[in-house]
Amino acid sequence: MNKSLVLLSLMLSAFFSSASTLDESIASIEQRISGRIGVSVLDSSTQQQWHYRGNERFPMMSTFKTLACAKMLHDADSGDLDKNALAPITSDKLIPWSPVTEKMVGSSITVSTACEATMETSDNTAANIVLHSIGGPQGLTEFLRLNQDDVTRLDRIEPELNQVLSGDQRDTTTPNAMNTTLHRLLFEGAMNPGSKNQLIAWMQGNTVSDSLLRSILPQGWSIADRSGAGANGSRGFTGAIWADNRKPLVISIYLTQTDLSMSERNQIINEIGGLIFQTYAIK
User: Which of 18, 30, 173, 214 is deepest in the core (most CB within 10 A)?
Assistant: First the structure.
């Protein structure tokens, strides 16, 4: 056996040992919070995907917004949508957590600017404007099927999609499905370069996830992410991290069926993120 094969064998052995420890650690956290946790990590350098409950369904919450804006950019590129088309903002359509659009009632917003608002501030009214422009939840689900995601589904709009019920498959994904789709959209050429770069820039400009993995990411690493929160103690994080000398890691973390406060959910996301960073030598 040559030296490179020996080295590869040793590296894989070390990884699987660390992954086993990661499994045990997350199982322990899950038991502690009396909830359900789903995690998926896709390493672009090896194409290996590690997961914990990675094929179980979890509520997407606002993590769907990345997918909706990917669909908007795709439709604009294919000529099916004018991203500069104006959509009116009316008081009867305004819903809670709309920090951008609540200041624009009576005026209009372009579909592209609505995507910027929903990606960078998680503006829910803007998200519904984007959904309306791409054919609603059904249009987004069809887009996912065309991109080889047969799992992820959106059924409702904001804010109803955050009304999480145990066992309800509406508005759900699995950590593995979300990770695979994000990797395909951001790093595998499913989108044209300009649109891909725009989507990543919006994710990097996200201002509502500072208390999550951004807060524990070592210096020298970049992050592009999107988070979500919902009923039933639910919380989600999806994103990618990379460095000059490391290809991206795509990470999805979901919590549900907990009694945790928002602050406690954030702490659990970060505890899991820290374990992932340790396992994958993110330092």
Answer: 173
> Do 240 and 223 touch, CB atoms closer than 8 A?
yes
Q: What is the DSSP letter of 54?
A: T
pTM of the model: 0.94
SS3 136: helix
The domain total for the chain is 1
Domain assignment present for residue 194? The answer is yes
Cα end-to-end distance, the chain, whole Å: 32
**Largest alpha-carbon pair distance within the chain?**
71
* CB neighbour burial string for 30-43, b if at least 16 within 10 angstroms, e if fewer: beebebbbbbbbbb
Residues classed as catalytic: 62
Residue 224 lies in a domain: yes
What is the domain range of residue 157? 18-63+136-279
What CATH number does residue 267 fall under? 3.40.710.10
pLDDT tens string 104-126:
999 999 999 999 999 999 999 99
d(CA 280, CA 156): 36
List phi, psi (to 5°) of 105. -60, 130
Q: Is there a contact between 59 and 175 (Cβ–Cβ < 8 Å)? A: no
Counting every residue written for the chain, the total comes to: 283
Q: What share of the chain is helix, strand, coil (3-state, %, to 5)?
A: 50, 20, 35
Q: Which residues pair with 64 in a beta bridge?
A: none
